[in-house]
Design a protein that fits this description.
By secondary structure, this protein is an alpha/beta fold. It contains seven helices and six strands; from the N terminus they run ββαααβαβαβαβα. It folds into two domains: 148 residues, Ribosomal protein L4/L1 (Ribosomal Protein L4, Chain: A), CATH 3.40.1370.10; 51 residues, no CATH class. It has a six-stranded mixed sheet. Strand 1 and strand 2 form a beta hairpin. Helix 2 crosses helix 3 and helix 4 crosses helix 5. The longest helix has 17 residues. The relative contact order is 0.18.
């Protein structure tokens, strides 16, 4: 299939031929869900920790006598049913949230997402995208001329000027093809990718 390509002045400069197997696949919601959930789970640090009843700093004395007070029996204030007591099943700092996803499924999921963006007209191919300085103002003006305010910029390799100028822009993210993830592809309203980035995608996922 062919994708329309524009230049930095938003003028049509022809088209670029891409692989149907990568950019023209049917949408598979189940596969996309698996890719997204596994990516988010594998991104979790797993450093949270909670204290059990043996770890909280509470007295070990019986708060009142067993009988005669009219209140329910209580052994110690570290009980999980008490305010400030320990957790019944505390989380461990070594908790592992990783979910296995083989490379074939990940590549297929990325292909499905890219195909969905093309059908929804949320993916635009540009012949090149360069900046003369690292000023945020220059990047902001260029994106305004192109008509993008919520955009993911994908290039073959992110130059220093593009990386530095995009950091202070809200709703704008610049990524290399190798670092592109499924969450970022679906998060932004528009995706702007260079022609070199398209070729790199075909090398990685075809």
């Amino acid at each position: 299939m062919d994708l329309k390509m524009i230049n930095e002045q938003k003028e049509d400069v022809g088209s670029i031929s891409v692989s149907d197997s990568l950019f023209n696949r049917e949408y598979n919601e189940t596969l996309v869900h698996q890719v997204i959930t596994s990516y988010l789970s594998n991104s979790r640090s797993g450093t949270r920790a909670q204290k059990g009843r043996s770890q909280v700093a509470r007295s070990n004395h019986k708060p009142w006598r067993q009988k005669g007070s009219g209140r329910a029996r209580a052994g110690r204030t570290s009980s999980p049913i008490w305010r400030g007591g320990g957790k019944v099943f505390p989380n461990s700092p070594e908790e592992n949230f990783n979910k296995k996803l083989n490379k074939k499924m990940y590549r297929a999921g990325m292909s499905v997402i890219l195909s969905k963006l093309i059908r929804d007209q949320r993916l635009t191919v540009i012949d090149s995208f360069t900046l003369s300085s690292h000023k945020t103002k220059e990047l902001s003006e260029k994106l305004q001329k192109l008509g993008f305010d919520d955009v993911l910029l994908i290039t073959h390799g992110v130059e220093d000027n593009l990386y530095l100028s995009s950091r202070n822009l809200p709703n704008t993210l610049a990524l290399e093809v190798n670092n592109t993830d499924p969450v970022s592809l679906l998060k932004f309203k528009n995706t702007l990718i260079t022609s070199d980035g398209i070729k790199k995608f075909e090398e990685l996922f075809s």
